[in-house]
From TrEMBL:
Its EC number is 4.1.2.25. Belongs to the DHNA family. It is an enzyme of class 4 (lyase). This is 7,8-dihydroneopterin aldolase. The gene is folB.
Length: 125
């Protein structure tokens, strides 16, 4: 199985349920795992056959920093859809943390998994 991952991608976003939150920007931290058949890229050493984690990271930053939602659930869902559509990813897992949200906790957030793992998208060798 092959997974391309992005760990602790930090983005400032306008996110939150309460009125005061709609007037500020808060830190969101994305950790993303994406299934990808890595063998073609590894065998040819060709970035065009790889899932480019730099391009995915930029797309997530651009999206999350320019959109406004109340719930982190909505943000996670929309980012999942963006990655799956724009980068042809058929399975992914996103952990989205909002570290400043609960004073007594290091972090809070959601984890979602979308799509299916198949032999074609990376579950097997
Ligand atoms: N499951 C969720 N619970 C809460 C969310 C959220 O997005 N998902 N958001 C808030 C507030 O915006 C909070 O972050 C303010 O401290 C509360 N609970």
């Amino acid at each position: 199985m092959a997974i391309v991952f992005i760990e602790n991608l930090s983005v400032d976003s306008c996110i939150g349920v309460y009125d005061w939150e709609k007037r500020i920007r808060q830190k969101l931290i994305f950790t993303i795992e994406m299934a990808w058949p890595n063998k073609p890229a590894a065998q040819t050493d060709d970035i065009n056959l790889a899932l480019d984690y730099a391009k995915v990271s930029q797309a997530v930053c651009d999206f999350a920093s320019s959109r406004q939602f109340e719930l982190i659930e909505t943000m996670a869902e929309q980012v999942a859809a963006l990655i799956m559509q724009q980068f042809n990813v058929s399975w992914l897992k996103i952990k989205l943390a909002k570290p400043g949200a609960v004073k007594q906790a290091t972090s809070v957030g959601v984890i979602i998994e979308r799509g299916t793992l198949t032999a074609e998208n990376g579950v097997s060798n």
